[in-house]
Amino acid sequence: MDPRLEEHAKILVEWSTEIKKGDMVGIRASPESHEFVIALYKKIAEKGAIPITLMNTDEMGKAFFDGADEDTLNTAPKHFEAFLENIDVFIALRSPSNIKALANVDSKRVIQRNVAMKRVQELYLSKRWCLTVHPTYALAQQADMSMEEYQNFVYDATLLDWKEESQILNKMKEHLERHNDIRYTGPETDLYASTEGRVWIASDGKHNMPSGEVFTAPVDNSVEGKIYFDIPFLQQGKVIEGVHLTFEKGEVVDFSAEKAEKTLKEIIEVDEGSRRLGEMAIGTNRGIKKYTLNMLFDEKIGDTIHCALGQAYKENNGTNESAVHVDMIKTMHEGEIIAGDELIYCKGKYFYEM
Amino acid sequence: MDPRLEEHAKILVEWSTEIKKGDMVGIRASPESHEFVIALYKKIAEKGAIPITLMNTDEMGKAFFDGADEDTLNTAPKHFEAFLENIDVFIALRSPSNIKALANVDSKRVIQRNVAMKRVQELYLSKRWCLTVHPTYALAQQADMSMEEYQNFVYDATLLDWKEESQILNKMKEHLERHNDIRYTGPETDLYASTEGRVWIASDGKHNMPSGEVFTAPVDNSVEGKIYFDIPFLQQGKVIEGVHLTFEKGEVVDFSAEKAEKTLKEIIEVDEGSRRLGEMAIGTNRGIKKYTLNMLFDEKIGDTIHCALGQAYKENNGTNESAVHVDMIKTMHEGEIIAGDELIYCKGKYFYEM
After folding, report:
1. What is the pTM assigned to this prediction?
2. In three state form, how does the secondary structure of B122-145 look?
3. Interface contact B53-A49, CB threshold 8 A
4. Complex ipTM tops 0.85
5. Are strands A128-133 and A208-209 parallel, antiparallel or unpaired?
6. Domains of chain B, with CATH numbers?
7. Residue among B78, B95, B120, B124 with most chain A CBs within 10 A, to mutate
């Protein structure tokens, strides 16, 4: 076994979910993560906890959608809910064989099924949970890499000293919370938002692996100015690139995209909330050196910021409501991040490095 | 997809477990049965039922045993139990990548874990459940076949008209239940047992797929005579072959084996019950033309009988108790099966073919 699988498993078990004696552990895996599940089983058993693994793939989901009528789509999975009610920890492994398996399922039916699965979602978010990736050919392909390159990419991002990372991230959170606003500057960018009454959260490897971001929800109507997102991202199967947004009183008043502008327009026009920002964040993981169209990694890239149009998180005291939450990322090597009168980041350096 | 996977799935869903609208369905699978699980998902969804799949392999089991201490081995999986309490149907797919993954785990630890898993076992046996096989290289290798040959072997045995098979099997059950005893004759064989007060069961594809046997539990102290089992079988990793047993008042008083006699001796000496028969049965599935050291198939081979030393089944009104249940099989092309004064089988023909 690649020793990095054992290191990855150790981080998930000891740092992310802090598994202890007697814990009932649920794992969500695919056939491609079998070897990683084996690494997890040994570590979980060593802690005195009991693992059970659910096998789930989009190909299985496709078969379900192909067979199910309306009533079936609306039927809640009582057995799945009962399982989740009785776990302490949930580890979700993303390891697809084919990221396009659901490409031709009507998105309305996917949303309909998600509504029936709402309690499942709530249940696992109420536990100690962590989402991570196990490298597969499908993900390597999406990232424009060979498998070996992609494995290196994943482990460079995840096999960090998370205790140390956590200290750095929490220091940044403390500094950001001394102020009531945030400002991003840079080429074609000067965006301001109030963060009064909001909470900054340090994403330090507890729920996402990799982690490496500090994020909040801006005050809904306070966002002013313009921003240019230079990192491409995937939405509705389309790569959107080179997005310009202009805000007045919290709302998008002008927008453009160098690629897939039509898809961007559709996102902005979903509902009232999709015209406003639900999240503003700073990515800090310098183990991630390039984007791969996988938001779990891309939004954590070091020396970036990101903003999301749409739904805000309750943990941030966020209030914006929307059916969407679409992250967009900007590199900051030529920019600044300013909170109140404090320079948090300037052209490649965080305040604690200056 | 091989259309035989869809046929196999249809039989499991429609005949074996009779899945209907609203059923909560649990599947136990391995990575190697992913494609078959996809076939099952579509059929299950078409019935209006909701499938959830557990991934379980002996390699995962091995990792758990490697990590677990005594306390952990004794800890019941509450989340697994909760899942099973909330299902209507359980479909167990045997599709190993390696049938020897647990070869070097102390069998005492396996038994200890099974004790902690007792409620899991009871729960799924209390539902509509079925055990089947999905062809893998490991199983083909065990059967001395290529993958293509093994696939043909499995589907020849399973893709039958089970309604018709059930009628034939139940007719045999009715005839056997008209009498109070059973006798097997043939080369080096003349074995008699009372079946008074016992129930014959037709295994017609509800719990095992393939099926094709009629079985009962003999009256504990009634078994008299001798028998020669000419089909090899696997026990404790050893192939036991050419077994002779002699019974007096229900107990083995003499035995020999052409291969692995030592292992046979150990089985007979496990406890009081392992010296007596817990099962006597007639195999009827002529789709199975050779033994493969896989009891799910071997005991169903057409024109055979089998007997098991050890634990009897409650469904048969069986009373013999033992920690073991070891099936042994005999071809009957030169033998007879007689119940009371009725010839049930004679040299290649069942009573309904004579």
Report:
1. 0.94
2. HHHHCCEEEEEECCCHHHHHHCCC
3. no
4. yes
5. parallel
6. 3-159 (3.40.1830.10), 163-353 (no CATH)
7. B78
